[in-house]
């Protein structure tokens, strides 16, 4: 289901390149991220939808059998127990097509990523002042 390796400029363009049922899931993820990080900015990075707030928060992408959600390894380690029912790999959480997208879990992950990025920015800023 990977699109013909077209270079995407917007998340809308990316989402519209997939079949309708996949578009719905991608849009649900997008909305959950937007609600959980309202100050974040949308972007395409590595030809995938991504959100940025003081650094990249998350990426997501559709594949033949699943949607990959990339929240960074630190969050996957922190929420390891909650994520046990999902397939994971290094830095990736996978949602099988046809299964409900765990929107509350995505919201929790995004909020953790916002906090990580904010804390890192504060630490960087205070180390420059020293």
TrEMBL record:
<dbReference type="Pfam" id="PF08818">
    <property type="entry name" value="DUF1801"/>
</dbReference>
<protein>
    <submittedName>
        <fullName>DUF1801 domain-containing protein</fullName>
    </submittedName>
</protein>
<dbReference type="InterPro" id="IPR014922">
    <property type="entry name" value="YdhG-like"/>
</dbReference>
<feature type="domain" description="YdhG-like">
    <location>
        <begin position="26"/>
        <end position="113"/>
    </location>
</feature>
């Amino acid at each position: 289901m990977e699109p013909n390796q077209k270079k995407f400029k917007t998340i809308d363009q990316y989402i519209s390149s997939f079949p309708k049922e996949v578009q719905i899931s991608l849009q649900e993820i997008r909305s959950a991220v937007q609600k959980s990080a309202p100050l974040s900015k949308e972007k395409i990075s590595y030809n995938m939808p991504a959100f940025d707030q003081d650094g990249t928060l998350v990426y997501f992408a559709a594949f033949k059998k699943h949607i990959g959600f990339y929240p960074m390894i630190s969050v996957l380690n922190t929420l390891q127990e909650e994520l046990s029912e999902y397939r994971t790999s290094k830095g990736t959480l996978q949602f099988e097509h046809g299964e409900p997208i765990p929107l509350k879990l995505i919201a929790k992950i995004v909020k953790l990523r916002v906090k990580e990025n904010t804390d890192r920015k504060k630490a960087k800023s205070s180390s420059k002042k020293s």
